[in-house]
Amino acid sequence: MLSGFTVVVGVTGGIAAYKTLEVVSRLRKLGAEVRVIMTESATRLVAPITFQTISNNPVVVHMFEEPKRWNVEHVALAEAADLFLVCPATANVIGKIYNGIADDFLTTSIMACTASKLICPAMNHNMYHNPVVQRNLEGLRQLGYHILEPESGRLASGATGKGRLPDPESIVREVVSILVPERDLEGLKILITAGPTREWIDPVRYISNPSTGKMGYALAAAAARRGATVYLVSGPVALEAPAGVILRKVETTQQMLDACLEFYTESDVVIGAAAPGDFHPERISGQKIKKSGAGIQLTFRETPDILKTLGQDKANKILVGFAAETENIVENAVQKAKQKNLDFVCANQVGLSDRGFGSDSNVISIVMPDGSHREIGPAPKYEIAMAILDKVKSIIG
Questions:
Q1: 17, 34, 39, 268: least CB-packed within 10 angstroms?
Q2: Are 21 and 38 in contact (CB under 8 A)?
Q3: Catalytic annotation on 332?
Q4: Would you place residue 70 in the very low, low, confident or very high pLDDT band (cuts 50, 70, 90)?
Q5: Where are the domains of the chain?
Q6: Domains 6-179 and 189-396 share a fold
Q7: Which of 393, 378, 47 lies closest to 186 in space, CA to CA?
Q8: Per-residue pLDDT for 72 more than 60?
Q9: Which CATH fold topology does 6-179 show?
Q10: 57, 130, 209, 341: which is the annotated catalytic residue?
């Protein structure tokens, strides 16, 4: 079930660290590649050699120990991870992660990781209910971290309360649900657009925009994992197509529309996550335009509106648009939904350094044509994609 996935497991100095041995064993039995990082405190409870034997990989503890592989190891592990699991997570490490403190191998690695993250708190019940710990956990939730709540029961101190690490089976089930979602979209055909388009001025120059295609590709990956047949029409991006999707590469907005029309008749859902150019030069020079000292003047015409064109022959399909806005986000999204006959619009504010074009996370508002809306994020774009697909599924019923 987890073949092809890499799970990085961070083990901290909680008494429940011994339970993580069973978690690692179960993940390995499901086919996952497991890499273990231990804090110095964790090694006082479980010997690193035990985790090394069960994971069949070297265990890393110290930041500056000799690397097991010839690379910058904390960065390499962070980039290899499909999921970063911290189990058990003490109050100390939770506070460090939320406040951006990276003073050991585990916290440095998780800061460098852009994959999904699952935190499994385990501690004394009074510590768990401390307002500082609760604030830190809520802050991590807002940043898109998955938090698996501890269980109530008898604790190591002899007291009874909420703070026990869930059993290994529950933890592994949560890992699987994040990495391998239910195939609840099987039978659906979903057309997704992604990335920018280019409108050429001459053979060496074009106008475009900063879209990287990350949101569209995240949607394609999520839909494919949930069992849908995915047609991905992509502008020029530096991304690999997710496994299992049908990819069509295009450059101009007209080419993107033509490709969409080709797949449209057999599609049940269309999600327009691309950022196609709105204007193209009236004339394209056949030769490179040379500098003359006098400058140049270009006349632009509007490109075809892809979603509006598709919305004119909507029938019973579901159409989802994106709106990158700088102001009046919800109002502009409602107008777009009505003008283009869309079921809903995913609106986000661009121009911010931590979201939108080029970032690995985002904040969007799912805006309905009647003006009702719900904000999602901040969260990794893959999780945003899952939420969008959940909305599509709820409309289909």
A1: 268
A2: no
A3: no
A4: very low
A5: 6-179, 189-396
A6: yes
A7: 393
A8: no
A9: Rossmann fold (3.40.50)
A10: 209
Q: What is the SS3 assignment for 303?
A: coil
Burial class (CB in 10 A: 0-12, 13-18, 19+), 304: middle
| Per-residue pLDDT reduced to its tens digit, 364-382 | 899 999 999 999 877 778 8
Structure tokens at 376: 């999602």
Tokens of 83: 């999921």
CATH class of 189-396: alpha beta
Rounded to 5 degrees, what are φ and ψ at 301? -120, 155
pTM over 0.85: no
Judging by beta carbons within 10 Å of its beta carbon (0-12, 13-18, 19+), is residue 127 exposed, middle or buried? Answer: middle
pLDDT at 40 over 60: yes
Q: Determine contact, residues 235/274, Cβ cutoff 8 Å.
A: yes
* Distance linking the first and last C-alpha atoms of the chain: 28
Mean pLDDT of 25-47: 95
Residue 159 confidence (pLDDT): 77
The token pair at 57 is 């990989």
